[in-house]
Amino acid sequence: MVAPNTNEVPTNYDRKSEVKAFDETREGVKGLVDAGVAEVPRIFHQPPQLDDQYSINNTSTDSEATQFSIPLIDLEGHGNPTSRNEIVAKVGEASETWGFFQIANHGIPVGVLEGIREGVRGFFEQDTRVKKEFYTRDHSKPLRYNTNFDLYSSPAANWRDTFLCYMAPNPPKPEDLPEVCRDVLIEYSKRVMELGKLLFELLSEALGLKPSHLNNIECSKGLQVLGHYYPACPQPELTLGTSKHADDSFLTVVLQDHIGGLQVVDRQNKWIDVPPVPGALVVNIGDLLQLISNDRFKSIEHRVLANREGPRISVASFFSTGLLPFTNLYGPIKELVSEDNPPKYRETTVRDYDTHFCDKGLDGTSALSHFKIRT
């Protein structure tokens, strides 16, 4: 199963069989590392064209790139009218230009942040026999652990294992969650839901709408929590932790650890690091919020580098009802369109959007383009 250190694919290469054999171990990327793999298997090799003009190991170290940085916004004082106006202005500017920002004084205690990081790590590092019981690609399961949701459809697998669970609007029974991270997962999710409602208020105001607008149309109704585990990689130049993509959510809140590796595309089409800030959370606009804001807010492509250091732990909380069977239609908000700024997207349900996103996989293309109104 170990591939030679080359990107040239032999004519007899049977990717489908290798993917299937890897998936059937139910041990994920961590299983490869635990087995002492010294070379990255070919199914993880990133085709150069997948990142277009960007090279896999292109970090933002040149002077031209490093003059830009993701905004860090302090939410302290958001209840004070004067402070809130300043915060709303910063959130609006970051959402329109970067699509990404970090937040400090967000209200989630450091102990809870540390607890969920350790809980995610504990899940992936528990006894393999226990962990295997959660390995599935069945969307009806309360918690799904696997390697890459698009393992069978993507051009290349990512060096990452993940668990996913819907924590709202219909949270799983506590006994259906892994014991090793059950309590902190429930606590963290409650805290993130509270934070999300505040963020949607600020984003509503930044759009010139009533503070309750985005919450009223149920942008904060659904919450998917994903625990990511990026093992140390022996050949990080050949693969990625997560391929270039934009999120299929309204909004995403990410807790990353000290290792870093998250990068976003800046206005000059360069990869820019999102450096870990102790106690801060990363917030990014998702495709669905770009759609309903009629391109006012930007859902920006991002990726995660593979790293010789590891494991890297991150927790991504997606505000979306995903593939759940809700029928709400979402299109550009009528208050934001006019004769001079007509709707740029057709209406869709979240489920239809997610279905298209999942079927497409992380192939380096935008899911939003499928919903564009052609003129």
Written account of the structure:
- The structure is a single chain.
- With 375 residues, the chain is an alpha+beta fold.
- It has one domain: B-lactam Antibiotic, Isopenicillin N Synthase, Chain (Jelly Rolls, Sandwich).
- The chain has helices at 15-25, 28-34, 63-66, 81-97, 110-125, 128-132, 182-206, 213-216, 287-292, 350-360, and strands at residues 72-74, 100-104, 143-146, 161-168, 223-230, 240-245, 251-256, 262-265, 271-273, 281-285, 302-305, 312-319, 329-330, 348-349.
- The strands form three sheets. An eight-stranded mixed β-sheet has the order 1-2-10-7-12-5-4-3. Strands 6-11-8-9 form a four-stranded antiparallel β-sheet, with no helix packed on it. Strands 13-14 form a two-stranded antiparallel ribbon.
- Strand 8 and strand 9 form a beta hairpin.
- The chain is globular, with a radius of gyration of 20 Å.
